[in-house]
Design a protein that fits this description.
- By secondary structure, the chain is of the alpha/beta class.
- The chain has three domains: about 140 residues, Rossmann fold; about 100 residues, Serine Threonine Protein Phosphatase 5, Tetratricopeptide repeat (Alpha Horseshoe), CATH 1.25.40; about 160 residues, Orthogonal Bundle (DNA Cyclobutane Dipyrimidine Photolyase, subunit A, domain 3).
- The chain is built from 21 helices and five strands.
- Strands 3-2-1-4-5 form a five-stranded parallel beta sheet, sandwiched between helices.
- Strand 2, helix 2 and strand 3 form a beta-alpha-beta unit.
- The longest helix has 23 residues.
- About 45% of the residues are buried.
Amino acid sequence: MTTLLWLRDDLRTLDHEALTAACEDVRDSGGAVVGLWIREEAEVDADGGRLGARPLGAAARWWNHRSLEALAPRLEALGVPLVFARGDAAAVVPAVAAGLGADVVRWSRRYAPRSRALDARIKSMLVDAGVAAHSHPGALLAEPWEVTTKVGGPYGVFTPFHRTLSEVEIAPELEVPEPVDPPGPAVRDALDRLHEEGLLLRLPALGLLDERPRWWEETVALHWEPGERAALDGLARMAQGVANYGATRDVPADADSTTGLSPRLRSGELSVRTAWHAVRRAAVDGQVSAEDARAWIRQLHWREFSWHLTFHHPDLHERPLRPQFAVFPYRQDEELAEAWRRGRTGIRLVDAGMRQLWESGWMHNRVRMVAASLFCKNLLQPWWEGEAWFWDTLVDADEANNPVSWQWVAGSGADASPYFRIFNPDTQAAKFDPEGRYVAQWLPEAVQPLSGYPPAPVVDLTVSRREALDAYEAMKEAVAGRA
């Protein structure tokens, strides 16, 4: 028996149900498991719509390349070679399965509607070809159909969702599977043929590092080490970030106020179930307080809530969940948007955050909210353009949490912040960075005389707040006029 394991956002060996099942397929049969990762290039339908997963942003491409480099020898030690391809997964997966003579294809589930539709299409194609196909859980604490309201529908408000999910029993994590026999000559020969035919490629040929190579290697790489081993090392230090989390999580200058695990969860180097069990153990052992553990798990639940919303609503990165926001009178201004992207707005906390993002591929969550609020409210720029910038530059931007969080700030999403809640960056800085340590770290020219830092903000915060509220009233009037 030969099993093809199609890897996506699950670049790990610990607590990996699809990998464990694949190894069990062949353990006593003398067969083989082959891992496959595809740089997916989705098809486009007749109307120009995307079919399949959202294309990876530049930051995720860099991270995945380095994480795959680290994963390959870990899988090889389990007897599982890792191979690569590029193209439409609906063409690649069946072709690789056929070329290997695979009996089974396994993968971890995806939840965005277009990804689910693609996976269902591929499963149908495999079954029609006589190949068994199985999807497995692995990205969430609970499946979207397992956490529902009393009438059986999805939650649209976070707090009751959080309360219900808190009552769900989380299954224990799976150990790394025992090694299986490596592929024999027949499978190795088949892999060689697929490489000769150009269907399989070497990792560098996927082009994941083609864009901004100096940025990644000279700046972002100084802050991160992708890979499962580094993820597990970070997990071992997790108590340091969770301790006093409830009190310090909004302090951007506090290096210990977060765990740094978000890109690990995004790439699947670490399962959310493993993270959940780790923080619960830390609370039982007295390494962290029960209150801090609950505060951190609440953030895991927000991630979960985002994915459950995404399961039910396609294209949240470009379509407002609240339909009335489709007519919101944004004022697209490339000069303002570019000042925001480059940290040149003259508003210190936001500019420090945008510089942190550009240099490290990450930004503190409190500052993300403030920067997003400035962009789509004070500057009146379309929220989806800000979301796209975060998607391209954040190492932890995933297909659910990134757009759902942007829509929360913009007021157009589920359980959204009231539109009149417009974060004042100066007030936020005074509250969460009162000594200016965060600004001094990431925007040193702001505290240096004659540095050339913008002499004045691009907007007046008081005036622009009023304009944002006026725009909101104009949207409501436009919607009422259509009724």
